Amino acid sequence: MRHLKSSDLKKTLTRINRKGYKAYKDLKGAYDFGDYLLYIDHVQGDPFASPSRLRVRVNQDVAGFPLDTYSNRSREIALRDYLSRVFYRNIGRFSEGSRGSGKSGLISIDRPGQEILQRSSVLINKEFVEVRFFLGLPARGRSIAGDQAEEMFFKELPAIVRHSLIFRKLDSASLYEHIHTAEDADYLRELLTDLGIVSFVADGSILPRASGTDKRPLKDKKVVPFVCPETLRIEVQLPNRGKVSGMGIHRGITLIVGGGYHGKSTLLDAIMLGIYNHVPGDGRELVVTDPKTVKIRAEDGRRIEKVNISSFISNLPFGQDTVAFCTDNASGSTSQAANIMEALEIGAKVLLIDEDTSATNFMIRDHRMQELVSKDREPITPFIDKARQLYKEYGVSTVLVIGGSGDYFDIADHVICMTEYRPYDFTERAREIAHKYRAERRPEGGTAFGSITERIPLAESLDPRRGQRDVKISTKGLHTIVFGTESVELAALEQLVDPSQTRAIGDAMSYARRYMDGKRTLREVVETVMRDIEERELDVLSPSPKGDYAYFRAFELAAAINRLRTLRMLQKRQ
Q1: The model's pTM
Q2: What is the mean pLDDT of the chain?
Q3: How many angstroms separate the CA atoms of 371 and 393, rounded?
């Protein structure tokens, strides 16, 4: 792309001042500002439309980031995340904000939350650092406000860039703390398999959140820092922080028990989000979990397409097939069974289940109910009768919050009791109780778990076009993707944390169609998409650079595809 001079941009703004808004299209191009290049990639057609997409690229001889700030993948992702945060803060510091009609005067960038994620908003390598952001070109009514645009381009933006993308202008101690925190978490996550655990919760962690909508740590005098029971304590040596200790959640079946409001679900939520790295000061910096961990819940009303749920449900009335189960309106039990089988299909190795968000009849059938309703009249095989088989045959561990059924003591490898937000190892006590009070219920799971049947998605059933119109993919917040004429609801995917992940998943659903050839399984399709992202970054999902993508896992991509109501599948022949 040919680079114009910054003075050319100023001349164009003078020329189009007070003209109709569409004259802003003349700005598209690349401009040399001396210390950096400005790329105007997309110009909005209306002051009320989505803001224009811009990029700034600073050569490393100006930016000056030391190689050790991005010398490995962990550090690189953390640095990119950090720079997005700094750029966001400096927008508030140097930009006047909204002025004029519509989105006039707004400068914005993808705003990170508590998690350190791979983002498309910042790229860095040995040659340059690039930031991608949005700018609402200012207008009065629907006429160009050229003087205001000039102030944004030549006063506000240079100050933001200078204080965000030049290493010597940054707080190096804060930057390295961000990098080291992420690197330690990644290093610890790599150790989990050798340690024989699926999750690690460091001593001193602060697990409670400020509120259901505020994911920052709760700051209250009553907050109890996490202290590991001695019997579950593990010590590890980290590259930056050195020796740390904490609780290991071992492979197998772990129960989290305790009274209401004593921290059971809080612990499970921290484990659930341990698949991500967290920012310094979050309280969960050293709570890390196996990346192949999936939270499972009931999901009434979801659509299910040819999922083999026969391990859990069979002999439905009227001969309804559960080997290739289909429904447009799943019950709590059938949805929870399907959610498990779909996660296993993509390669899940750890399941997290909270009884509060589970179907009761899916979790347990006690002795009295067995006496009242015989097994030949009950289609559901409860999870209690399948969890041990799942671990024995497939190596899939389960971490389960349970408060209403001691029958689970019979299958547990470890029992952690939360009392006033402190964990205690109740494994031996639970075994004593299980031995003293023998369960009267009869196992109903048979001798084997059953088959995990892979499925083949049909590309024609994923059509993001609206009739004869162009492709239409958009998102509404964190939990809704508008895919053509369909809305894909993702509220049950509790491990999604950022709307930019949802945005990327929507485009990845369309991108994945190129690999749906009627032969590849869903697992093969999503793994190929993830490999493309690993090799070519999130940019592979879009024909033009986008700064509002964040990394997601294969599990969430597959889950979104599974929830598209037009989806059609074939089962792979065994």
Answers
A1: 0.95
A2: 95
A3: 30
